[in-house]
Design brief:
Number of domains of chain A: 1
Strand order of the largest sheet of chain A: 1-2-3-7-4
Number of strands of chain A: 18
Strand content of chain A: 15-25%
Structural class of chain A: alpha+beta
Mean pLDDT of chain A: 92
Oligomer: homotetramer
Helix content of chain A: 25-40%
CATH topology of chain A: Chorismate synthase, AroC fold
Shape of chain A: globular
Number of helices of chain A: 10
CATH superfamily of chain A: Chorismate synthase AroC
Largest sheet of chain A: 5 strands, antiparallel
Largest interface: A-B, 115 and 115 residues
C-alpha cells in the first residue's frame, strides 16, 4: 500500500496543501516525448477555480520541472514536477484544528497518522495535490496523442441537470479540450452554473457524474485477472477526491436488464473488426477491444459546506458543532474533469508501455 | 500488469476452464491461521450452480492444498490451492472456435494472445477460475473473523427486482452465510428466481447488483493516494467476470444530490467516534473510518445467451452468425456473491497485514 | 516482501520438501513460446543428485504443467508447474525436530513462523524447491535462445580446486549444456570429484564459486537506480540456497587495483561498438553494454555435515548437541549450477519483456 | 523495472548532475519520526569530497524538504527531499559529448535513451545523486536508532591497504559515525591517504572494499525466496555507483573452505539464542538470526582517470581517443561509505515496516 501507482510507469504523488510544495514523480516515461510547458500551463488552468462557484484561492500554479526533461524532451529518467505553494493562509484552519469535518479525511487521518499529519487545508488529502497530477498528465496526454489516442471528459450531469450524450467522439473530445466548463450542451451547462450559484448561496454543495471517452486505443491491452483495464483505471480514478463510484460502458444501467440487449455484436468496418454497439465501453474480459473506452465517475457533493454540522472534538473527545469559514468550492466536478483526463492518460500510458515496451512512446533519436 | 494482486498478501490466479486445473497462490498469509477444509468446501458449494437457473456442469470442486498448510494451520509460506478440472467437454466449443462470442473475451483474447490462447470454455477467462478465489478467500475470511471482521453479500437487485436494504448488519451477514440464494427478503428472492427461470426459457440472461457489507474494520486503514480502500477493492473486484461498476456507500446516488445530505456527521457512541449516517460507506479520504464498509457491484447480464447473434469469424475474417449451445448460466449473480465475499476478504487481509505487520493474523505459537 | 520476483515476468515459488508438491508460477510469459517437456526433463536431470557426492534421494521429478500451456506452446496466461513429492521419509527429521541445525534456516524459520513451519526436510527452505525453478527456467532459456541469447555456468572452483577460465564463450556454453559435472577442464573436474569424495567420507562438506556467462544480450537493458542488471540478478540469485556472494565481471578482484586497468576501452568490431576487455562483465551504470554478462556466485559449503555440532533445543531452550543422519549432499555446487542458469534466464526474460514489451518472445500467430 | 525500491517503504530517486536538482521521494515512513536537519547536514558532509583525493566541486548540499515533515516530525505521508544543483559547469562536458568514457555509463545511456539523456556530468548516473540517498537515509538511520539498531561502515581495504577487522561492533560503529575517513586503524588510514594521493598524481584511480555492520536487528526478518535479506540488500546496494560485488559474512572466503568451519553453532547467551561465530553474517536461509549483519561491497576503481583512453565517437561512429579534464575523484570509496550506511538503513526500514506494520517506527501521538 502506497502513494505510488503503476508498473511500467510509476506515478508517485507528494505534498501538502499548506506545506512547501505539491508534486509528482513519473518514472518510466520514454525518452524523447516532447514537453510543452505552455500545454501544461493550459491544462493547469482548466483545473483552476473560476467564478462564483469556486474557491477564491487563485494560484497561478507555477510548476517547475526538477528532473528528467532536457532540451524540451523527456530524457527517459524520472520526471519530478514541483508546484510550490504560495498563497497559504493557514490561520483559517487553526481554530478548527481538532473538529473533524464531516465527509472529509480529518478523522481518518487522525486515526492513521496519530496527530502527526499536517492538517492545514486538508494537508496531503487536499484537492490541491491534483494539480501535480494534471501537470504530469499533460505529458502522458501528449504521448498518447502521438499515437492517435485522445481523451476527453464531460460533465454528464451536475446538480441534477443532464448534459447531452457523447455523439461524434472525435469532435466532442476536441471541443472539450478548450472548454472551461466541460458541458457539451451549452444550454445545459448554463443551467448547471445557475443552479450551482444558487447552491453556493445556500451554503451547500453539489456533485455530479463525469464521463470520460478515449478513442484510438488498440485492441488487446489489459490482463484477464486483477490488472484488467477496468481494475487499473478504477484503482487510480478512486484517488480523485470525492469519487465514490466508477463504471464502464453502461455499468449500473446494464445490471437490471437483459443479456440480449448488451452483448455488442461484432461486425466488420472495412478490414477492422468492430462492435455494432458499445455498451461494454470498449472492454471485454478486462481487455480493450479497439472500441472507444467509456468511463463514468460518481463525484459526491464536496463535503465543505457552510451549514453548521455535528462533529466530535478529536482532542477533548467531546461532541461539538462545526461551522466552516474560509475558502471552499461549492462544487469541484468542473475542476475534476481535467484530473480525470490526466489520471486516465497516465494509466493508459502505463498499460501501453507495459504492452509494447518502454520505448513505445519514444520519437526516435534526439 | 499481471495476474497477481496485493502487496502484503500476494494473490495469484492460474488455470484454464478445460485445462488440467485452476488454482490460486496466496503468498503472505500469516503462520497459524486455521485451515478448515470443510469450511472451504461449504464456501465452494455456494459458488456451485444449482437448479434450472444454472449450467448443468456440476463439479464437486475437489480442491487440493499443495503447500503452505501443515497440521491444520497455515505455515506462513505460500499456499497453493489446486482445483483439478474433471468434467471438461471440450468438443462443445470446437465447432465455434473462431466465432467470437459477443460480450465475451474471445476477440480480445485473440488480439492479446495471437491465437495461442486455450479457447476451450473461455479458457483463462472462465468464471470457473473464481472457484480458486473462493477456496483461498475462505482462509482470508477465517483470519478476518478471528479479528471480529465479518463480510457478507446479498443480491440487492436482480432482473429488475429489489431485495430489502441491509438492516442489522451483524444479523444479516450471519443469515447470508448459509443462504444458497443470497436475498434477505425471501419473497423478493422467490420472485427473482421465477423471473430468472422465465428469462432462461427465453434463451436470454440477466444481471443485477451485489451489495457487500463488512463490519468490524478498524479506522485508519488505507492510503490517501492510489492505494485508497476504494481503489484497492475496486481494482480486485473488477476481475470478477461481468462486473462493470463498483461504488462505495451511496455512490452514484450521491452524485446528483446536495452535500448537506451526505456528510455523515460525527458523534460519540460511548467512547467510540462514529458517524450518524454512513452514506460514504465507511471510507473518508480513501481510509476506513471504523463504520461498516458498503460496496455495490454492477453485474452485467451473462453474455452467453441462446439467441442467434451477429459476429465475425476470426480466422476467415468474415461476418457470421453464432448460435450457442452447450452449458451456460442464464445468470451468475447468485454464484458471484461468494466470489465478492472472497475477493473483498483477500483485499482486506492485504490491507490489514500491511498496516499491522505480517503476523497480525497469527494465533500465537503452534 | 514476498516469495515473488519480477515485474514483467512474475516468478512465484511454493512448496515444502516433504509436503504434497513443490512448484512455480510464471506470470508474464509471452504467448507462443515452445514448451518442450523433454528439454525440461533434461534440465531437471542436471539438478538431480548423482554418485557418491550427492544425497541418496533420487526422485525422477515428474513435473506436471497445470496451466498456461496448450498444444505445446505457452498461451500467454500464467504457467503453473507442479512437481509432486513422492519419496519423502519424514521420520528422518522428527527426532531432531527442535534441534536447530547450525548454518540452516531452522532457527530463523522458528523465529519467523513461530513453530507453524513445516520443518520436515527443511520445508520451504529446502533445496528441493529449486527443481521448480529449473523446470520454469527451461522455458525462459528456450525463449532466450530464440533471440540468440545463451546462458551457461561452470564450477569455477570447488573445494579449493580451480577450473580453467572461460575461453570461447559460445563453445564453452554449448559444452556445458550437456555436462553433468560442469567443469570445463576435465582434469580439474576429476580432481574436484576425488576431493569431494574425500570430504564426504570425513563427514564434512564443500562449497565453491560458480561463474555464469550470458552471450547475445542487447545493449541498453536495465535501469540506472535500483533496477540495475546487477541489482536484479543478485536479488534473485541470492535465493539459491548457500549463495553468500554475488559479483559481476572481476568484482572483488577489481577492488584493490587501479582504474587504468579495468576501464574496458571501447572500440569497433565492424559496425558494432564493443569493449576491448570485459572486466565490468557486460554492465556499465547498471545497464547492459552488449558484451557478455559475467556473474560469479560464492556458494558456501553445504551446512549439513555429519560431525557432531553444538546447538540449542528450541523447545526446551537448553544447549544441546546435534548429530545429523539421513540424506544430505556433501556438496551442492554441481547441482546449483543449473539453478543459476535458470534463475539468470528468468531474470533476463523479465528485463527483456519489460524493455521490449510483453510479446517480445512470441513466435507469431499460432 | 524502475528507479524505485521497496515494498513498505518506497524509495524513489530523481535528478541529474547538472539539471535543476537531485532528490529522493520516501513513501511509507511512519508518522512521528524526528527529522533533525542538523543530522542530515552532518551526514551529507560525510559524503562531500575533501582534500586532494576528491573532486574540487564543493557544494554545500543545501537540501530542502518539500513534503511529509511538519513541526520536526514525519507526518506519515511521502517525504520529498530536494537538493538543488548550484555549481554546475556544464561546458566541461560539452567538448567530449559523444566520446563515451570507458567504464562509465555514457554508452549504455546512449543505447537506452537514444541520445535524449542529459549527458552533462553523467546526468542521472552521477554519483551526485547519492546525496539525496544520504539525506533520506539519515531519517531511516534515526528511526532504526530508536529501535536500538545501529549501522556503520568502514573501508576494509583501499588501494591494496587493509584496515583492521571489526572488533567491538558497538564501539566501532560509534567511532565511525564521526570519522571523515572511515578507517578503524588510524595508521592504515594514513597509509591509504598517502597512497591515494600518489595515485591521484599519476592520473589514476583506486577502489576498495567497504564493510558494513548492523547491530540490534531482531531475528526472523526476511523471506526465504527472492525477498531474502541478502537479496534485498544487494539489489539496493548494487545501485551505488562502482559497486561490482556484494557478499554477506565471509562470502567468497567461505566458498573454497569446509562446512565444519563455517556453520556458526548455536549457544545460549543468558536467555538469548546466539551463534558462537558469525561467518554467515547474521543471516540464515535469507532471514535474520539476531546476530550482527555483516556486508561487504566491492567498489571498483573510479572510472574517471586522466590517462588517455581508447573509445568510440557515438555520433560519427569512429574510433577516437579521450583525455578527460574537469573535476573527478581519484577515489570515491571514502565518500561511498555513508551511502552504504544510508542504503542499508533504508532497506532495513522497509523490511522492518513490512514485518511489524507501518507504525513500527512511530513514536506515539504528537
Amino acid at each position: 500500500m502506497k502513494n505510488t501507482f503503476g508498473t511500467s510507469l510509476s506515478i508517485s504523488i507528494f505534498g501538502e496543501s499548506h506545506g512547501e510544495a505539491v508534486g509528482l514523480l513519473l518514472d518510466g516515461l520514454a525518452p524523447g516525448i516532447p514537453v510543452d510547458e505552455d500545454y501544461i500551463r493550459a491544462q493547469l488552468s482548466l483545473r483552476r477555480p473560476a467564478g462564483r462557484i469556486s474557491t477564491a484561492r487563485q494560484e497561478p500554479d507555477p510548476f517547475r520541472i526538477l528532473s528528467g526533461v532536457y532540451e524540451g524532451h523527456t530524457t527517459g529518467t524520472p520526471v519530478c514536477i514541483m508546484i510550490p505553494n504560495t498563497q497559504t493562509r493557514s490561520k483559517d484552519y487553526a481554530a478548527t484544528r481538532f473538529l473533524a469535518r464531516p465527509g472529509h479525511a480529518d478523522y481518518t487521518a487522525w486515526c492513521k497518522y496519530h496527530g502527526f499529519e499536517d492538517f492545514r487545508g486538508g494537508g496531503h488529502f487536499s484537492g490541491r495535490i491534483t494539480a501535480a497530477l494534471v501537470a504530469g498528465g499533460a505529458i502522458a496526454l501528449t504521448a498518447l496523442a502521438q499515437k492517435g489516442i485522445r481523451v476527453g471528459t464531460h460533465i454528464r450531469s451536475c446538480a441534477g441537470i443532464r448534459d447531452r450524450d457523447f455523439g461524434d467522439l472525435a469532435a466532442d473530445i476536441e471541443a472539450l479540450a478548450h472548454m472551461p466548463f466541460a458541458v457539451l450542451d451549452a444550454e445545459a451547462g448554463a443551467r448547471m452554473l445557475t443552479r450551482l450559484e444558487q447552491i453556493a448561496e445556500e451554503g451547500d454543495s453539489a456533485g455530479g457524474v463525469l464521463e470520460t471517452a478515449v478513442i484510438g486505443m488498440p485492441a488487446g491491452v489489459g490482463e484477464p485477472w486483477f490488472d484488467t483495464v477496468e481494475g487499473l483505471l478504477s484503482h487510480a480514478l478512486f484517488s480523485i477526491p470525492a469519487v465514490k463510484g466508477v463504471q464502464f460502458g453502461e455499468g449500473f444501467d446494464m445490471a437490471d436488464d437483459l443479456g440480449s440487449r448488451f452483448n455488442d455484436p461484432f461486425r466488420l468496418d472495412g478490414e477492422r473488426i468492430v462492435t455494432a454497439t458499445n455498451h461494454n465501453g470498449g472492454i471485454n474480459g478486462g481487455i480493450t477491444n479497439g472500441m472507444p473506452l467509456l468511463i463514468r465517475l460518481a463525484v459526491k457533493p464536496t463535503p465543505s459546506i457552510y451549514k453548521t454540522q455535528d462533529t466530535v472534538d478529536l482532542q477533548t473527545h467531546e461532541e461539538a458543532q462545526l461551522s466552516i469559514h474560509g475558502r471552499h468550492d461549492p462544487a469541484i466536478i468542473h475542476r475534476a474533469r481535467v484530473v480525470a483526463d490526466s489520471v486516465t492518460a497516465l494509466v493508459l500510458y502505463d498499460l501501453l508501455a507495459g504492452r509494447y515496451g518502454t520505448d513505445h512512446f519514444c520519437k526516435g533519436e534526439a
